[in-house]
Recover the amino acids of this structure.
């Protein structure tokens, strides 16, 4: 440190104008990669995850447009053509009422995907609010909120879901309500853990010093920085919701005839499987399995891609 | 330590109480009475029936009776099968479901750990890829689909094993495979991941430097630490398996709890629904409690009195 002595004058030639080659040091050599771009780049390298993603895109397309390719109505019965094996007229065969299995499979896809995505979305909203508040407030509030979570976590989920289905009567809404009423707990725990970690970082303090309120800090600082694990959790919620729906349908608590989800179709196929009508079970079972597979590998891939520690 | 156990114990009681209350409220919220079929019967019979099942008393009294029945493990008579009590149904069904559940968890834990360990030891080798392919497929195929395939192929086409019922160890094989595949896959993945992490630790290098055999290193040093994540998910997994038995029992015509539970739901048999829900939940919550305590004992890093605000 040079002492501030008014008698000492600094010669002008000591000062040098910037611009003699040093400014290049700060220049950006490579285009900067945002977190999301980098994650996408790494996800693309994961073949299995990409197969899952491609499959899901195709499935979504078929769920929306699949029935268009078929001349049959989803509930149309044709008693002359019962239990037909797959053929040129009925690509996936027909069921015991002569309904076209191809058409029903895509309607089933709609229901299964809808249930899975809705369950994940609702879990996401409740979990983010509950976990965000709990983690951010801390102290007594957090303690109480976490005790509630611990109790809910201990509940046997499927039993609660079955009970709710019995009371509310089987329907699509019931299934989604029943699945989310216990399902958001996992998401809330993850969000809270992330928030606890991040809330003490400097940028949050900076935001606070500018006078940002709780809700702004949660919305603008905490949530964007916790998105990685949250998205992974959502990707893995979808297959478990699809499985739960199929499970309930299989117990006779799912969507009611004449509409069908994959679980209902598999359940209906059970009595005829031994008589050799393999297609009745094969198509719904195949699509349940491959959808769960796709979501699982995609979730795994995203877990690796969104982990900042693995960023290279 | 005792304080932690006490705290967990209180939590457990609260959880069971909540489930019991929830069940009670939900069951009373269902429109229609269990005697709806007997609509033609005269009012006196109706009244007598309601009196016999104590459905004529005011709600709070019914609730108290119900709580008393839970504590005393006496769930009263079934409505659809008047000469059987809920207790006899439970006594008949639960041991079978329990057997199926326990056999499943034992098979899943042993085979999952073995698969996961070998996959980690041969990281990126054929065994690793094989085991992980199995794991992904195992998680993706729902147990009821697997069960149906097993019945069709193994039992009907090849005639190797009996397709249904529950009368000899031979009958257990197919249901246990169907139910255990998913959990095995999950355990294998978890074991592999944590084993890979543990194997790079210094104390494993140390053990190698000491000249211990690979078997001893894995069995005595690595596994012990690698298995903690498996213990953590054991509680919820057990709950999943024991409810999973419902579907498997239906497919294999096994006369366990699942059958009575599903029947009671379809028949609106209140005492059976309430009794079995509460009993089953209490059992599951108790299992979670045991797993929690076991975890505390097994992991030296966890001190059993946590700081305020931690989970």
């Amino acid at each position: 440190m040079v002492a501030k002595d008014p008698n000492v004058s600094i010669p002008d030639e000591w000062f040098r104008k910037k611009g003699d080659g040093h400014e290049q040091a700060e220049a950006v050599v490579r285009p900067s990669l945002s977190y999301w771009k980098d994650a996408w780049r790494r996800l693309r390298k994961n073949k299995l995850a990409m197969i899952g993603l491609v499959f899901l895109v195709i499935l979504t397309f078929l769920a929306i447009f699949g029935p268009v390719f078929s001349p049959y109505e989803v509930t149309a019965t044709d008693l002359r053509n019962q239990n037909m094996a797959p053929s040129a007229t009925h690509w996936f065969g027909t069921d015991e009422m002569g309904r076209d299995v191809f058409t029903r499979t895509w309607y089933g896809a709609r229901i299964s995907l809808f249930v899975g995505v809705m369950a994940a979305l609702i879990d996401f909203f409740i979990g983010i609010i509950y976990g965000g508040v709990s983690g951010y407030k801390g102290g007594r509030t957090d303690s109480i909120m976490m005790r509630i979570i611990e109790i809910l976590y201990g509940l046997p989920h499927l039993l609660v879901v079955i009970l709710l289905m019995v009371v509310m009567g089987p329907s699509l809404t019931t299934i989604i309500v029943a699945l989310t009423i216990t399902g958001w707990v996992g998401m809330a725990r993850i969000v809270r853990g992330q928030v606890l970690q991040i809330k003490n970082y400097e940028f949050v303090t900076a935001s606070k010093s500018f006078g940002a309120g709780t809700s702004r800090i949660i919305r603008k600082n905490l949530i964007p920085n916790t998105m990685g694990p949250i998205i992974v959790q959502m990707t893995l919620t979808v297959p478990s919701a699809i499985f739960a729906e199929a499970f309930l349908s299989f117990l006779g608590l799912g969507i009611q005839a004449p509409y069908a989800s994959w679980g209902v179709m598999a359940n209906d196929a059970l009595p005829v499987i031994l008589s050799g009508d393999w297609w009745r079970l094969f198509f719904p079972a195949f699509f349940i399995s491959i959808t769960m597979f796709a979501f699982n590998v995609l979730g795994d891939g995203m877990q690796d891609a969104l982990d900042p520690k693995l960023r290279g | 330590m005792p304080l932690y156990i006490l705290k967990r114990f209180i939590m457990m009681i609260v959880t069971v109480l909540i489930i019991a209350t929830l069940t009670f409220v939900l069951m009373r919220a269902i429109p229609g009475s269990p005697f709806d079929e007997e609509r033609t019967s005269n009012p006196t019979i109706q009244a007598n029936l309601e009196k016999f099942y104590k459905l004529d008393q005011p709600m709070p009294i019914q609730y108290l009776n119900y709580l008393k029945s839970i504590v005393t493990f006496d769930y009263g008579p079934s409505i659809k099968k008047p000469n059987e009590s809920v207790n006899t149904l439970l006594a008949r069904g639960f041991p079978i479901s329990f057997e199926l559940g326990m056999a499943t968890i034992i098979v899943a834990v042993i085979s999952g750990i073995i698969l996961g360990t070998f996959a980690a030891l041969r990281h990126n080798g054929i065994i690793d890829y094989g085991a992980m392919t199995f794991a992904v497929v195992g998680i993706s195929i729902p147990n009821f689909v697997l069960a149906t395939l097993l019945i069709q192929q193994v039992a009907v086409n090849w005639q190797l094993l009996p397709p249904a019922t529950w009368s000899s160890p031979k009958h257990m094989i197919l249901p246990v495979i169907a139910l255990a595949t998913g959990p095995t896959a999950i355990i294998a993945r978890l074991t592999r991941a944590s084993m890979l992490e543990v194997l790079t630790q210094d104390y494993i290098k140390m053990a190698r430097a000491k000249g211990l055999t690979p078997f001893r290193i894995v069995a005595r040093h690595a596994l012990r630490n690698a298995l903690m994540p498996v213990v953590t998910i054991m509680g919820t997994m057990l709950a999943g398996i024991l409810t999973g038995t419902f579907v498997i029992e239906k497919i294999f015509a096994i006369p366990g709890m699942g059958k009575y539970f599903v029947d009671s739901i379809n028949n609106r048999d209140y005492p059976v629904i309430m009794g079995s829900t509460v009993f089953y939940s209490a059992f599951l919550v108790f299992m979670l409690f045991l797993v929690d305590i076991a975890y505390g004992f097994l992991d030296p890093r966890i001190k059993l009195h946590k700081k305020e605000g931690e989970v």
Observations:
- Chain B has a mean pLDDT of 81.
- Residues 2 and 99 of chain B are 32 Å apart (CA to CA).
- The domain at 95-264 of chain B is CATH 1.10.3720.10 (MetI-like fold).
